[in-house]
């Protein structure tokens, strides 16, 4: 029979919620992860950079992820109007990067959670509301009538997190003048050789990289003023891409079989990250423009800090609140720096001079001074 009292209740089973559950379960806390879906989601970030790789390695997760087929990569080649503008070698800055399907990255962590019997996953569990007493959250209610009591409540459930009203958090959201469409195709030599990111002066971009040894990941960015129906026909899309995609002809010839889906693109930042024992994590706290490729790595770093704070203070809500103020809340300034960086990249990529001025290697690999 499932328990109804836990040390920590985590809403959302994405990378932030999963990794926090792993760290807390590893330390012996009773944790429940609540997921409204029937399984863990399969759409999300696919990159681990500097900080995320270090964390996976430190906690013995990296070898498991590589065993699942994750790829270690060194270089991303950047082009503007077909001309190479940067051969960016991550290893020169002390770190490679790793690509893997989102479900494999999260699956590595959730599999590790199974080693800790005090961590429970409840699927098909949607939270209706959180009950508070004198500003302190005490229990949450699920739509199916179940009630969970906990000392700490974590919202790791995305940009429209259920914890925001309880924190009185305001969400700053930034929209962009382009839309992004994603798809998959069979692996091709040019992409297996290097990740390639192409920009054009008229506001398009295309990013191709191997998701594993069999699959090429494709992202196409188009100005928001262009309606999808105007470019969805393969011949029209290929014709336009060929005006600025210069070294991935094997991708273009395979695009006729690709089925694209639209990907929401924005960035956001919560005004505060906690209120006593209710805390936001991951996209509930921040989200970067995907051009940074840093959201997952920073979420892992945040979860590590948050786990340390919870372990030191979950027994006393006032102690917890002070520790959150001194050790977790300052992460917002770090996130703000990367959000601004991603925002500038996303607004200048069509201008090669401005883009090269803004591009900062240490920020791009995820090294930010705290």
UniProtKB/TrEMBL annotation:
It comes from the Bacteria. Keywords: Membrane, Oxidoreductase, Transmembrane, Transmembrane helix. GO terms for molecular function: 3-(3-hydroxyphenyl)propionate hydroxylase activity; FAD binding. The chain crosses the membrane at residues 6-24. GO terms for biological process: 3-(3-hydroxy)phenylpropionate catabolic process. Residues 6-334 form the FAD-binding domain. This is 2-polyprenyl-6-methoxyphenol hydroxylase. It comes from Seinonella peptonophila. The lineage of its organism: Bacteria, Bacillati, Bacillota, Bacilli, Bacillales.
């Amino acid at each position: 029979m499932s328990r109804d009292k836990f040390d920590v209740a985590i809403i959302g089973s994405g990378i932030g919620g999963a990794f926090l559950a792993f760290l807390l379960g590893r330390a012996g806390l009773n944790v429940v992860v609540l997921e409204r879906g029937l399984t863990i989601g399969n759409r999300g970030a696919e990159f681990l950079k500097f900080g995320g790789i270090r964390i996976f390695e430190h906690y013995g997760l990296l070898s498991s992820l590589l065993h699942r087929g994750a790829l270690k990569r060194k270089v991303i080649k950047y082009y503007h109007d077909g001309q190479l503008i940067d051969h960016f070698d991550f290893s020169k800055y002390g770190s490679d990067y790793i690509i893997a399907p989102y479900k494999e990255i999260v699956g590595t962590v959730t599999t590790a959670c199974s080693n800790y019997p005090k961590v429970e996953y409840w699927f098909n569990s949607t939270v209706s509301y959180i009950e508070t007493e004198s500003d302190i959250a005490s229990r949450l209610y699920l739509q199916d009538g179940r009630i969970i009591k906990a000392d700490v409540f974590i919202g790791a459930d995305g940009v429209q997190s259920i914890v925001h009203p309880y924190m009185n958090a305001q969400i700053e959201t930034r929209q962009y003048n382009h839309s992004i469409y994603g798809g998959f195709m069979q692996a091709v030599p040019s992409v297996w050789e290097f990740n390639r990111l192409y920009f054009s002066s008229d506001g398009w971009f295309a990013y191709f990289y191997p998701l594993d040894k069999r699959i090429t990941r494709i992202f196409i960015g188009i100005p928001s003023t262009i309606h999808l129906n105007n470019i969805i026909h393969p011949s029209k899309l290929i014709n336009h891409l060929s005006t600025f995609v210069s070294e991935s002809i094997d991708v273009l010839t395979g695009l006729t079989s690709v089925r694209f889906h639209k990907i929401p693109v924005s960035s956001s930042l919560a005004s505060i990250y906690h209120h006593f024992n209710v805390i936001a994590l991951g996209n509930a706290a921040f989200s970067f423009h995907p051009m940074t490729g840093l959201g997952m790595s920073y979420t892992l770093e945040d979860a590590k800090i948050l786990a340390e704070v919870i372990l030191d203070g979950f027994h006393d809500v006032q102690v917890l609140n002070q520790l959150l103020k001194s050790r977790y809340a300052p992460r917002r300034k770090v996130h703000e720096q990367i959000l601004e960086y991603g925002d500038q990249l996303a607004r200048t990529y069509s201008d090669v001079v401005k883009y090269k001025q803004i591009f900062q290697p240490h920020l791009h690999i995820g090294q930010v001074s705290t």
